[in-house]
Predict the structure of Threonylcarbamoyl-AMP synthase.
Amino acid sequence: NTKVWKVDKYVDNLESNPHVVDAAHLIRENEVVALPTETVYGLGGNAESDAAVAKIFAAKGRPGDNPLIIHIAEKVQLNRFVTEIPAKAEVLMDKFWPGPLTIIFNKKDGVLSEKATAGLSTVAVRMPDHPVALALLKKCGLPVAAPSANSSGKPSPTKAEHVIDDLNGKIAGVLDGGSTGVGVESTVVDCTEEIPVILRPGGVTKEQLEVVIGYVGVDPALTDDEARPKAPGMKYRHYAPNAPLFMVSGTSRFLQHLVEEKQQEGLRVGVLTTEEQVEAYQADLVLACGRRAELESVAAALYETLRRFNQENVDIIFSEMFPGTGVGHAIMNRLQKAAGNRMISEKAPTPEM
Ligand code: TXA
Ligand code: MG
């Protein structure tokens, strides 16, 4: 069975915490361990070892063409495996590292496992803003490849319990640092071209990036179903609860009407809403995902809410929409993926559900 090592993230000198030391030792031996970050839990392994990286892909059931993010504790580690650091990337690192921003660089060959980067000529790197993650990274002294620590396709884990639900028996251990903060993954920004481009919206918003480096593009595939995403992972259906999820554009009355229609067909219906609106619905399971007035709280609660629908065995889920600005961009991106892009609009109800 997978070991759960509880670590209080607020104590000093985490690098000598016995659990952190054990986990670092396991990583040096090319085993894999789950670790808390400020976004979601990651499944970490030695990024320079094919054997370790193969274990990560196997535990998650992740397709081999989807590259991993390399986690570091110090900027100097970059020199080992990237060819150059563009000026805008330098500015972004100074401003947002450690933090929920992943930067794509051109890669030096022959250092990292080719499996970790899925054979690409580029590499995704971030410095997580979590004391336990940073202590582990410093202690093991290696670049650590770490995708989110969920089974491929499932919502990402924001608590150690979620990691255990998905990966128990498949990994050596999980450092339990409590709930992660941000709740959605890091923003992935490609800095290999003159104009940086967001490949995955996340914890750092487009607006925040543009304050420091000016105009930032967005991968057209994020809005156009037909375009091929530049981040290979964005082409997969993700974050999906077991029951089909539909995004609903319209009033709460319209959404409640959909609920009743489905209940009349004998289905158990779930509703994803926020604290402001819970009273507006009567369904088999109404879950408040944070507070709409504070989108950060919606992001923080999103994946746990999606996981709770699974535990309660609903047959169909209707979700409210969120504004696409700020961290709402990441929230809507994840919900739309979870919904497989199914949307029902009050103005033009679709018949195909
Ligand atoms: O917040 C996060 O980023 C979390 C925590 C654990 O750090 N990690 C995470 O990793 O979300 P993962 O593997 O679930 O997602 C990595 C994303 C995928 O969409 C992948 O395709 C993309 O980053 N990616 C990785 N390397 C890339 C590259 N060289 N070029 C383009 N996209 C890349
Ligand atoms: Mg993931």
Notes: The first strand starts at residue 3 and ends at 6.
